[in-house]
Every structure is written in C-alpha cells, then in structure tokens.
Design brief:
The chain is mainly beta. The protein has one helix at 2-23, and strands spanning 55-57, 63-66, 73-74, 81-87, 94-103, 106-111, 114-117, 122-126, 131-132, 145-149, 157-163, 172-181, 191-202, 210-218, 225-226, 231-237, 244-245, 264-267, 270-271, 273-277, 281-285, 293-301, 304-305, 309-313, 319-320, 348-349, 362-363, 370-376, 381-382, 396-397, 401-405, 408-412, 418-421, 424-430, 437-445, 448-449, 455-458. It has three domains: 2-202, Immunoglobulin-like (Sandwich); 210-313, Immunoglobulin-like (Sandwich), CATH 2.60.40.10; 319-458, Immunoglobulin-like (Sandwich), CATH 2.60.40.10. Strands 1, 3, 5, 6, 8, 9, 10, 12 and 13 form a nine-stranded mixed beta sheet that branches. Strands 25, 28, 31, 32, 33, 34, 35, 36 and 37 form a nine-stranded antiparallel beta sheet that branches. The structure holds protoporphyrin IX containing FE.
Length: 460
C-alpha cells in the first residue's frame, strides 16, 4: 500500500509541478513555440492576441537584438554572453516577448546554444512547456528552448544569457515575437511585432590572449598588489576583440558583469567584474576572496585562454587615485576634488593648468580647506559590501585610517573613509598648515600605506 501511495504522491507532485506553469496567465510568459519561427505559432493566434483591436506587424523594426557582439557573430566554444532584446513602441503600456535560436541546418527543431535568465524578468521554457531552471534542465531529447518575459512589464528591454554552441555549427538564426500591449490584462488592443531571422555568423578565431609579464596590477598604483574589491588593470596583447566599457543594460539587478563580448577574467579562479576591455588593456574589479599571497590572473577571450600571471593578494591594498594616464605628469598628483568641484567650471584640486588637457580648471588647495581624495583596495566596510555589486548608501571603512600631507597629520572627516562606488572609497581631508608647494600625500588604511610619491599642490 505505502509504495503505491508514495508513487501516487509522486505522480500528484509531478502533475502539480506542471499544472502551475500551465495555470499561469500568459502575461506571466507566453506558451512555447510562439516566436514565429518555422514550426512555431505566434502570439497573434486565434484565441490569443488575434483579438479585437489587436494588430500584427511583420518584419518589425521595433524589435532590436543585441547578441553581445556588435558584429552579429558568435564564438564557437566561447563563454556566456549577455543578450538584450529591446522593443520600442510608443503606444505600448506593457511589454512581453519570446525568442528562439535555431541552427540554420534545422530551423524547426535545431536548438543553437543554451539560454539562461539573467534575472527574474525572463524565463526559459523547454519544448514540452516545462520551465528550464539552473536546477531543472530540459528533459533529455527535449532540446528546443524559448526565452521570454516571465511577467509583463513597463520596460521594453529584456536581458538574458546565451552560451554559444561548443563548435562551429554554421549560422545561427534567431526569431523574436513581441507584444507591445495596452495593459488591459487581456489579449485585445495589443500590437504584436514579429522579427527575424536575425543571423549570427560564427566568428573567425584569432590569436590567444597574452598578459604582459608584470602586466596585472592595481589600477591606481600600478603595483602588483590587489585586495578583494580593488580595481585592477591588466595589460597585454589580444586581450579583447573590441574596445568598450560595460553598458547600463549589462548591470542587471545591481550585479556587475563578469564578461564583456565574451571576455572574462579569473583571479584565483574566481570571476572578476569587467568594466573596460580593449586589445591591450582590461580593467576589472577583483572578486571577494579571503586568500592572501600570490594568486593567478587569467584572461579568457573568444579566442582562448591566456597563461596565468601572478599577482599578490592582500587583505588591504590601498592605492590613491591619481591623474596617471590622463595628463602629463599625472601619476605625480592625486585626483582630488573640492566639495563644490563640478563639470561646469568650478575648479578641481591641482596646480593651475594641471587638467587643461581635460578642459577642467584647477587651483591649489589652501590650508584649512577640505578636499576629497579617492582610493581603491580599501578593505572591509560596515555594512559589508560584496564586490561586483552596485554600492548603496556609503558604507564606512572598518580599518583605522590616517592621512599625512607634507608629513603633517591631516584631519579626516569622521576619521574614516566611505565606499561610494564599487571598489572606490572617498576620504574628506582637511589640508593641514604646511608650506606652499607640492606636498606628499600619504594614506594608511589598517596600517597599510598607499603608493609612494604622490602629491597635492598647496598654496595660500
Ligand atoms: C510571444 C508571444 C506572446 C507574448 C509576447 C505575450 C505577451 C502578453 C502580454 C504582455 C500580456 C499582457 C497584456 C496586457 O496586459 O495588455 C498577455 C496577456 C495575455 N496573453 Fe499573451 N503573449 C503571447 C502569446 C500568447 C498566446 C499564444 C496566448 C494564447 C494561448 C496568449 C494569451 C494571453 C491571454 C489570455 C492574456 C490575458 C490574460 C493573461 O494575462 O493571461 N498569449 N500576453
């Protein structure tokens, strides 16, 4: 009896686990095979959005696809890339969509790559209608996937992740159906847009990335020492196929991207957060990691993985922001602001003309004035702020802070620094009574000194 009861319970559980998906309202995600691809229906089907006041727009330019690579290619065997679908329709109140990616060699049933939601705004359906999740893949043999909205929403932009096929499968074709709806909670009065196929070509494989010896350094001190959450620069060759910074759409639910255009960095085998990529330089935020000592840095691009370069990981590795790389002699001067500095002409701190190449006026600081200094690698905060997340509020540093200017201890506002942006902390410091001229700035966090030989210009 019991065994039968158990199986029965399991069966009920199985039915129940499916039913909820089926019971869900379509504004919580369209039924699978609604993309308009070969073998698929569309939203504009009888009993669905083919309803009074609804319209169908074929080959619609209102749907844009960004497959994470500007040249509409994919990299066989490459890493996960962030895709973004944008639906622009001024008449819409709420939006939904469904997308599929198929092999050109089998446009009906040939799944190309693998989809995953990037956040709760999208979901992936398997071809049997079940939900594909991180813990529940599609059943064996059920290959075709459909990524779409998980709930109708007022924004027409949806982002999700795609892992390309492991090998060169020829062209990948993408179809998208979208609903620019009037928000009445029904199928009537909606504008159904169809677009595709978008064609992704296999990218040509280029040379493997190489990191220059000693090319993994703290972004602001150029020293080979980092800490969790610190900004790093990595120099070398063939480090990326493109040159750009992250886009707002790639920061999803406050989480910073771990790859751009298929370029990613691992530090001690943990994903770093990628802000800037180019063929010769990458800037990343180091991930949280309790390890200290020498750790490997590895760059992966669509063309392969670099050999590791070692960098020293410490609990705290503070580095002051300077104008290195921005203006001549920039590495000598701290990047400091006055409390009222701005981009509309109010001066920043520096000798006259220091930032003229950036069209920013500067003036020396006077004793008694407060200036704002910035650093990375500042260590723990309270409340704790994980690396790779957008910072909310201004968490305080937990380690003791000391600043000397011209060798004279300087007053630090609230005796501490504040995390103001991922990996970036700010110190409000009063210029002590020191002689006119370039005065050395020394910042210590938890007894660890920032880089040497950086100055601030003081003048009464
Ligand atoms: C990719 C295709 C589809 C998309 C993008 C889509 C999207 C949406 C959106 C955004 C809404 C909310 C409409 C509003 O509030 O004005 C909605 C509602 C609805 N859709 Fe769809 N839909 C699709 C396909 C379908 C299909 C094929 C059916 C029928 C099987 C269907 C049935 C409904 C129904 C009954 C509603 C109203 C009530 C509800 O929320 O369930 N939809 N859909």
């Amino acid at each position: 009896m019991h065994r039968e009861k158990q199986i029965y319970l399991a069966k009920i559980a199985a039915v129940l686990s499916v039913l909820p998906v089926l019971i869900y309202a379509y504004s919580f995600g369209a039924p699978r095979r609604s993309t308009g691809a070969p073998g698929d229906d569309t939203c504009f089907t009888a009993g669905c959005h083919q309803a009074p006041g609804s319209t169908l727009i074929r080959d619609s330019s209102a749907i844009q696809l960004d497959p994470g690579r500007p040249d509409m290619t994919y990299v066989p065997g490459g890493g996960k890339v962030r895709w973004t679908v944008t639906i622009s329709d001024p008449q819409a109140v709420v939006f939904g969509f469904q997308l599929t990616a198929r092999l050109e060699s089998d446009t009906r049933n040939g799944q190309a790559g693998d989809f995953e939601p990037a956040d709760s705004s999208t979901q992936v359906l398997c071809d049997d209608g079940s939900l594909k999740t991180a813990t529940q893949p599609c059943r064996p043999g059920v290959t075709v996937q459909f990524v779409g909205h998980s709930v109708r929403r007022t924004s027409g932009t949806f982002s999700f992740d795609w892992t390309p096929p492991a090998t060169n499968v020829g062209n990948v074709l993408v179809w998208i159906a979208a609903n620019a709806a009037n928000g009445n909670g029904m199928t009537s009065g909606d504008r159904i847009h169809l677009a595709g196929p978008f064609v992704l070509r296999p990218a040509a494989i280029g040379p493997r990335p190489t990191i220059a010896q000693g090319g993994a350094v703290n972004a602001w001190s150029s020293r080979p020492t980092i800490s969790s959450g610190a900004w790093m620069s990595i120099y070398g060759q063939n480090l990326a196929p493109t040159t750009r910074t992250w886009r707002a759409s790639e920061i999803v639910s406050g989480v910073l991207p771990t790859q751009l255009d298929g370029v990613s960095v691992k530090i001690n085998n943990r994903d770093a957060f990628v802000y800037y990529i180019s063929p010769t330089q990458i800037n990343v935020q180091a991930p949280d990691d309790d390890t200290t000592g020498m750790v490997p840095v590895v760059v992966a691009t669509p063309n392969g993985t670099s050999d590791p370069v070692m960098v020293e990981k410490r609990r705290i590795a503070p580095a002051l922001f300077t104008w290195a790389g921005f203006v001549p002699d920039g590495q000598r001067y701290v990047g400091a602001l006055f409390p009222d500095s701005d981009f509309s002409g109010r001066p920043w701190v520096g000798r006259p003309g220091l930032l003229a190449p950036l069209n920013i006026p500067t003036r020396p600081a006077r004793p008694g004035e407060f200036v704002l200094l910035f650093a990375t690698g500042c260590g723990d905060t309270n409340p704790a702020q994980p690396a790779g997340r957008v910072v909310s509020g201004a968490p305080r540093l937990t380690n003791p802070v000391a600043v000397r200017i011209g060798g004279v201890p300087a007053e630090v506002f609230e005796n501490t620094g504040f995390l103001i942006f991922a990996g970036e902390c700010q110190f409000n410091v009063r210029i002590p009574d020191v002689p006119d001229g370039d005065q050395r700035v020394e910042l210590q966090i938890g007894g660890v000194e920032t880089q040497q030989e950086v100055y601030i210009t003081v003048q009464r």
